[in-house]
TrEMBL record:
<dbReference type="InterPro" id="IPR010914">
    <property type="entry name" value="RsgA_GTPase_dom"/>
</dbReference>
<protein>
    <recommendedName>
        <fullName>Small ribosomal subunit biogenesis GTPase RsgA</fullName>
        <ecNumber>3.6.1.-</ecNumber>
    </recommendedName>
</protein>
<dbReference type="Pfam" id="PF03193">
    <property type="entry name" value="RsgA_GTPase"/>
</dbReference>
<keyword id="KW-0862">Zinc</keyword>
<comment type="subunit">
    <text>Monomer. Associates with 30S ribosomal subunit, binds 16S rRNA.</text>
</comment>
<comment type="function">
    <text>One of several proteins that assist in the late maturation steps of the functional core of the 30S ribosomal subunit. Helps release RbfA from mature subunits. May play a role in the assembly of ribosomal proteins into the subunit. Circularly permuted GTPase that catalyzes slow GTP hydrolysis, GTPase activity is stimulated by the 30S ribosomal subunit.</text>
</comment>
<feature type="domain" description="EngC GTPase">
    <location>
        <begin position="71"/>
        <end position="218"/>
    </location>
</feature>
<keyword id="KW-0378">Hydrolase</keyword>
<keyword id="KW-0479">Metal-binding</keyword>
<dbReference type="InterPro" id="IPR030378">
    <property type="entry name" value="G_CP_dom"/>
</dbReference>
<dbReference type="GO" id="GO:0042274">
    <property type="term" value="P:ribosomal small subunit biogenesis"/>
</dbReference>
<feature type="binding site">
    <location>
        <begin position="111"/>
        <end position="114"/>
    </location>
    <ligand>
        <name>GTP</name>
    </ligand>
</feature>
<feature type="binding site">
    <location>
        <position position="251"/>
    </location>
    <ligand>
        <name>Zn(2+)</name>
    </ligand>
</feature>
<dbReference type="InterPro" id="IPR004881">
    <property type="entry name" value="Ribosome_biogen_GTPase_RsgA"/>
</dbReference>
<dbReference type="GO" id="GO:0046872">
    <property type="term" value="F:metal ion binding"/>
</dbReference>
<keyword id="KW-0699">rRNA-binding</keyword>
<dbReference type="InterPro" id="IPR031944">
    <property type="entry name" value="RsgA_N"/>
</dbReference>
């Protein structure tokens, strides 16, 4: 039989197939072959009943994330808040780079808009326009969630939900599907961070799609990032790289750089370019150390 792994917990894989979920173990030869079944994997399995099955083979993957360990991801819903904690473009850009690196479509969701004052709302609207101009989808949500907007985004897809701790990811999931009853953490007023409450990765039904809460995904790891592929992770920079005078332009100090010209003309947001340069420097320093 063929199915898809919906949850992995304590050595068991819960495989969904034809309206039923089968509790399975992985055959021992996976470890010998250096393979690990992941939530989201399409698999071949055998099962005599719902409690005693075995995953036999992993079918080809579209992609696979390390943190969280999940495969075949179509979309990442990156959740930030307008206030408490305040929206950070630096953090948002780092999440976007990490998601672009995995060739997953990111969608930015900025929550708690109803808690922001008029000045903050205007600022968020400006950021929304900048990110949309760059090529991203941006959703602005209130504490009382417009579920249909998110349902439309993830319909027919596997999505991960990620973002800074304390922005209300678990609250958002509970609003999307009240049957989930996910424990929510209290924001620490000292650290400004929420206590993460998720313990495992699981695909949950949200409307006509699936979404996974992602423990540990408030920290970003970009081990595969290089000075060459970083520019591909900023769509507005990627679109202009062919216009630079020098092939292989890093858009840092080179003359006649189309990207720097676009920044000076206001066609690329100055904060986006600043974050590009910051990450570029970090990648270079890391390369020198190793």
């Amino acid at each position: 039989m063929e199915g898809q792994i919906m949850k992995a917990l304590s050595g068991f894989y819960y495989v969904y197939s034809d309206g039923k979920t089968y509790q399975c173990r992985a055959r021992g030869n996976f470890r010998k072959r250096g393979l690990t079944p992941l939530v989201g994997d399409h698999v071949e399995f055998q099962a005599d009943n719902l409690k005693e099955g075995y995953v036999l083979e992993l079918l080809p993957r579209k992609n696979a994330l390390v943190r969280p360990p999940i495969a075949n991801v179509d979309l990442a819903l990156l959740v930030f808040s307008a206030v408490e904690p305040d929206f950070s473009t630096n953090l948002a850009d780092r999440f976007l780079v990490a998601i672009e690196l995995e060739d997953v479509e990111p969608v930015i969701c900025i929550s708690k808009m109803d808690l922001a004052d008029d000045a903050r709302k205007a600022e968020i609207e400006e950021y929304k326009a900048i990110y949309e101009e760059a090529g991203y989808r941006v959703l602005l949500t209130n504490t009382e969630l417009d579920k249909n907007a998110i349902f439309d985004v993830i319909a027919g897809k596997i999505a991960v939900i990620a973002g800074q701790s304390g922005v209300g990811k678990s609250t958002l999931l509970n609003a999307l599907n009240p049957q989930l009853d996910i424990e929510t953490g209290v924001i620490s007023m000292v650290l400004g961070r929420g206590k993460h409450t998720t313990r495992h990765v699981e695909l949950m039904t949200i409307g006509d799609g699936f979404i996974a809460d992602t423990p540990g995904f408030s920290s970003i790891e970009m081990d595969e990032l290089t000075t060459e592929n970083l520019q591909f992770c900023f769509p507005e920079i990627d679109r202009r790289r062919g216009e630079c005078k020098f092939r292989g332009c890093s858009h840092e100090n080179e003359p006649k750089c189309a990207v720097k010209d676009a920044v000076e003309a206001g066609d690329i947001a100055a904060f986006r370019y600043k974050h590009y340069l910051q990450i570029l420097t970090e990648v270079k320093n890391k390369k020198e150390r190793y």
